[in-house]
Amino acid sequence: MPPTLASVVRNTALHVTVLAGADHLERPVRWVHTSELDDPTPFLEGGELLLTTGIKLGKSAARLQAYVHRLADAGVVGLGLGVGLSHTEVPQALVDAAAQRGLPLLRVPEATPFIAISKTVSAALAAEQYEAVTTSFEAQEELTRAALGKDGTTAIVRRLAVRLGGWAALYDGSGALSAVAPDWAARRAGRLAAEVDRLRRRPAPSSAALQGRSPGIDTADEDYVVVQSLGADRRPRGFLAVGTEDRITPTERYVLNAAVALLTLTLERSRELRQAEERMGAALLHMVLAGEVATARQVSAGLFGGLPEGTTRVLVAGAGSGPEAAEALGELGDRAEQAGGRVGERLLVSREDGPHGPRLLVLAVDNGSAHRACLGAVEEHEGLALGVSAPTTLEEAGTAYAQAERALAVALRGGRRSVDHEEVGAGSLLPLLGEEAVTAFAEGLLRPLREHDRTARGDLVASLRAWLSRHGQWDAAAADLGVHRHTLRYRMRRVEELLGRSLDDTDVRMELWLALRAGEE
């Protein structure tokens, strides 16, 4: 702890007396400054004990009051007046002004040199700094031993909470709580989800301090909370939150920084190892997609604990071009891996640069944690799209990959966040196509018929719709319209003339039906 005015007063060798501001003696003293200037504030930083003989102050009450106000406004924590030189005693006006501003005023006897007070405070400050360095070094050693143990990050969180005399919590890259100490702090840590989510959207490292109380915590549970993102390459790999009863001291800040560094190293691991693991996972995924499942299973057993088992799906995510797209896909992959890792779910991930921009391939358990994490991530990120295959086995993963690619193409073309293969293979085709493109196609193709219907007899659009819906059956279509079949035949010949196309062509019939259906949407 830094020295305080109270510790200076208690030093009997100094023989100082408190004349005003006795209720504020616990203020920490950051330095002792001696000045005989009428206005020393340009040379002050705040937190000083100012010593003076008052040689230039005079005895004017207004002048003494203005002097005290200047010091108090500058953040001076105490004023010591040396008597016996310019003042035989401390002026009462100075005492009254100090009492009014709550500024501790000390009477320094002539026998006590100012340098003695300076040495006392300097020695205490040196002792504080030595204690801070010693404590920080011991804490760093302790946290390092914890990091090297089998519990790793959890042990760091536990030791950090003890060192700070509060609580600590660790979150993974998706913002999910992964470790907390002591156990009773889980409820408090859980209430920081919104703050963690805000940091998750900012480049790492970044931090936030919640002065006063944790959000949503009752008044009886007041905390000073600091939340810090963990990561070395702008992408947060995790988050650390600590809560203490009082504001964190400089020494505690050293301890917190040491914990952040160790957790960052632990979460990041070595960049080369992480990249090697990613390349190995991508190679295994492509082996499975190529049908070499037996070989992939044999290779993965010792490295990844095996391949995903049971019913699986292939997911292909895409985005635009540029670093932001690659970063968004990288975060999607991280969230899938973290979601699977929390429940021990195996998955394979591959990040690739394709001809149409970056792609992310994921082979995951059907409706598992990783599968759901991918669906959730694309809903949160503008510009991401996801294609999902039908449920499949590892042996059929190659076919599933083609399904996912087709579903992704539909999603990108239609401006949708995700498309499942089942949507491509069943139901109406129209919802899968881009609305603007379909509308433009329909308007262009049917424009001659609509212009005819506005100016001439005979409803060609309605007649064409009835004829196509009855698959070219004249009598049935004429009955639906309430006209003679010869009338309908005349109208269809008029349609062919206006469009310049033959209704005997199957492709023409399909395009016309699509245009008519698009007009109904």
Describe this structure in words.
The protein has helices at 5-10, 61-73, 92-101, 114-148, 153-164, 186-190, 193-200, 250-268, 271-289, 293-303, 323-342, 369-380, 397-414, 421-425, 435-455, 460-469, 474-481, 485-499, 506-520, and strands at residues 17-20, 31-34, 48-52, 78-82, 105-108, 167-172, 177-181, 207-210, 224-230, 238-244, 312-318, 348-354, 357-365, 385-388, 418-420. With 521 residues, the protein is of the alpha/beta class. The strands form three sheets. The chain has a five-stranded mixed β-sheet with strand order 1-5-4-3-2. Helix 16 (460-469) crosses helix 18 (485-499) and helix 17 packs across helix 18 (485-499). The chain is elongated, with a radius of gyration of 38 Å. Mean pLDDT is 84; it is low at 213-220.
Which features characterize this protein?
19 helices, alpha/beta, 5-stranded mixed sheet, 521 residues, 50% helix
Topology (elements, then pairings):
Elements: H1 5-10, E1 17-20, E2 31-34, E3 48-52, H2 61-73, E4 78-82, H3 92-101, E5 105-108, H4 114-148, H5 153-164, E6 167-172, E7 177-181, H6 186-190, H7 193-200, E8 207-210, E9 224-230, E10 238-244, H8 250-268, H9 271-289, H10 293-303, E11 312-318, H11 323-342, E12 348-354, E13 357-365, H12 369-380, E14 385-388, H13 397-414, E15 418-420, H14 421-425, H15 435-455, H16 460-469, H17 474-481, H18 485-499, H19 506-520
Parallel strand pairs: 2-3, 3-4, 4-5, 14-15
Antiparallel strand pairs: 1-5, 6-7, 6-10, 8-9, 9-10, 11-13, 11-14, 12-13
Helix pairs in contact: 2-3, 4-5, 4-8, 5-8, 9-10, 11-12, 15-19, 16-17, 16-18, 17-18
